[in-house]
Design brief:
Elements: H1 2-16, E1 20-21, E2 24-27, E3 30-32, E4 40-41, E5 43-47, E6 50-55, H2 57-63, E7 64-65, E8 69-71, E9 76-79, E10 81-86, H3 88-94, E11 98-99, H4 106-119, E12 125-130, H5 144-149, E13 155-159, E14 164-167, H6 169-175, E15 186-191, E16 194-201, H7 204-208, H8 216-232, E17 235-243, H9 245-256, E18 263-269, H10 272-278, E19 284-285, E20 289-297, H11 327-338, E21 343-348, H12 351-365, E22 374-377, E23 394-397, H13 399-405, H14 409-413, H15 424-431, E24 435-436, H16 447-456, H17 476-482, H18 485-490, E25 508-511, E26 528-533, E27 536-537
Parallel strand pairs: 1-7, 2-8, 3-9, 10-17, 11-12, 12-13, 17-18, 18-20, 20-21, 21-22, 22-23, 23-24
Antiparallel strand pairs: 2-5, 3-4, 5-6, 9-25, 13-14, 14-16, 15-16, 19-20, 25-26, 26-27
Helix pairs in contact: 3-8, 11-12, 13-16
């Protein structure tokens, strides 16, 4: 009898078969897979950087054996988060200049610049982050105080949205900007006929030409600093909206050498030099880098009144904003890109810029399927122009822009026109998909602020109490999709990332709370406890 029982056990063990080896097992988790059914799981196995099995803990452990098992004790997991529109390299560069984010007055800016220069003497002082809309006096500053503090040192301070620049007289002199200089694709702000030191869009390029170039060590450090910040928020892929060839090749070299883990979807800046090089070649793709899109600028930003509107600004009669790239140039670029495999991603804020870009896409694509061209921002749309998004055009939108701009957007646009602004739900209904990002460092890096702004449509002070234009809010499920699988789709990468499914890269984030279940007000407080890229813990 005893021998018979032993034989039965041995037979049953033989039926189970040997367990397969895996590099990592994650068990007892609350996993949002974001697959087609938005299903949930509690465990998965990873081998060679990809998910090989997803299910319940008992089954995964019965099928796989691993030297590394992570028991998450109910913690929530999402696919690796994707920022569909940001300035990754710019974020890193910002760590090396005067940080003006959140400054409440011009006096505070001056003090920060002065302190920075005393602690880190520079031959050319650079800074970014000021926003006159956050001050008691909501007017552009002037260079008068900068001239007094820094008569012999050039200073250039970029507005938070990157579409306006405050410079001192030394910088103007070095760039050759004087009372006779004509502005193209933007504006040289004047007061009482005199240059104030604020340049909007186009003329900023003249200052850019005299700014000192960073050396390779500074560039590498900028990329590594940006990566560290992004990984800390669970971001495993970033779409950098505008890079030159040299920076793209530096990113590639660091990734290939194992010095940069994050995945990058690179939009090449639409300079002639960049386009001549890349469009003559096939898109470039590795596991961590995808170069297959071109970033084009349509107009400026609403905060600096550079967004191109069909009718004048409600708070500045006679002012329409401006296209930063001539219309015929945008058309020519679109026609050129349409003949290649590359995607066109165009910055469009104002209703005039948006409809021109949409009509241009329609014209040059001429019914071509699955090109996935994007409108970056798609911020203000006339109510009768939304249907253009039915034609396969993807809105790439940034929810925190709505909660940052809501205090003054109505003043700029007026009661009727603002109804077509930050219209995320309408864009989703028309396009069938939206890609969500932050535009950092214009906004904060945190994807949890993106989630909160999309769903609650409020700021962190719970304003407005009922939410801003709540008819345009997204659901939690829609928002998570926009930060994962829909963002991946917008990059032609939905078969390799954006959800936790067998065969995809094992990119995922472990959260301190369940962002799909906690009170919405708690979402901004969520922390990322662990981040994995290709099955390797990087945070």
């Amino acid at each position: 009898m005893k021998n018979s029982l032993i034989m039965l056990v041995l037979v049953l063990m033989g039926c189970e078969g040997p367990r397969e080896n895996a590099d990592l097992l994650v068990i007892n988790a609350n996993v949002y897979t974001v697959d087609n059914d938005f299903s949930r799981a509690e465990a998965f196995a990873i081998k060679d950087g990809k998910f090989v099995a997803i299910g319940v803990s008992k089954e995964i452990q019965e099928r796989y054996i691993s030297n590394q098992i992570v028991d998450l004790k109910g913690r929530t997991i999402t696919p690796g988060l994707i920022d569909a529109h940001c300035h990754f390299y710019g974020l890193g560069q910002n760590q090396q200049v005067v940080d003006l984010i959140g400054t409440g007055s011009y006096d505070e800016i001056l003090q920060k610049v002065k302190s920075f220069q005393e602690e880190n003497p520079k031959e050319f002082i650079l800074g970014r982050g000021w926003d006159q809309n956050d001050w008691d006096v909501k007017e552009f500053p002037t260079k008068k105080e900068l001239d007094a503090l820094f008569p012999d040192t050039p200073v250039a301070l970029r507005r938070v949205d990157g579409h306006a620049l405050l410079v001192n007289q030394k910088a103007l002199d070095m760039a050759g900007i004087d009372e006779d200089t004509k502005a193209t694709g933007g504006e040289i702000i004047r007061k009482n006929g005199k240059i104030t030191g604020v340049l909007v869009d186009g003329p900023m390029g003249m200052i850019g030409e005299i700014m000192p170039a960073s050396d390779r060590a500074e560039q590498i450090q900028a990329l590594k600093n940006a990566e560290q910040i992004c990984l800390s928020y669970g971001l495993t892929t970033v779409n950098d909206a505008g890079l030159d060839r040299s920076t793209i090749e530096l990113i590639d070299s660091l990734q290939q050498a194992g010095e940069l883990s994050i995945r990058v979807y690179a939009m090449i800046s639409a300079s002639k030099e960049n386009m001549d090089y890349y469009l003559a070649r096939k898109p470039y793709k590795t596991d961590r880098l995808n170069v297959r899109s071109v970033k084009v600028y349509g107009d400026g930003a609403l905060g600096s009144r550079g967004a191109a509107l069909k009718k004048p600004y409600s708070d500045m009669p006679g002012h329409f904003g401006a296209m930063t790239t001539p219309l015929e140039v945008i058309e020519s670029i679109a026609e050129e890109i349409a003949q290649t495999e590359y995607q066109m991603n165009t910055h469009a804020i104002g209703d005039s810029a948006n409809v021109f870009v949409l009509k241009t896409y329609q014209k040059v694509l001429n019914g071509a399927k699955d090109r996935r061209w994007k409108v970056e921002h798609a911020q203000i749309i006339s109510l009768d122009d939304f249907d253009y998004f039915k034609e396969g055009i993807i809105p790439s939108i940034q929810p925190t822009h709505a909660t940052s701009d809501m205090y003054w957007a109505g003043d700029r646009l007026g009661e009727e026109r603002v109804k077509g602004a930050y219209a995320f739900k309408t864009l989703l209904d028309k396009a069938g998909t939206v890609a969500l990002g932050t535009d950092f460092p214009v906004e904060q890096v945190s994807p949890f602020l993106t989630f909160y702004a999309a769903v609650a449509r409020k700021d962190l002070d719970n304003y407005p109490e009922g939410g801003y234009q709540m008819n345009e809010a997204l659901s939690r499920e829609e928002t998570l999709k926009g930060m994962t699988i829909w963002a991946a789709h917008s990059n032609f990468e939905e078969d390799e990332k954006g959800s936790i499914e067998v065969g995809k890269f094992a990119d995922f984030a472990v959260l301190s709370a369940d962002l799909m279940e906690v009170a919405i007000e708690e979402v901004p407080k969520i922390k990322v406890e662990q981040t994995f890229v290709g099955g390797v813990r990087v945070k």
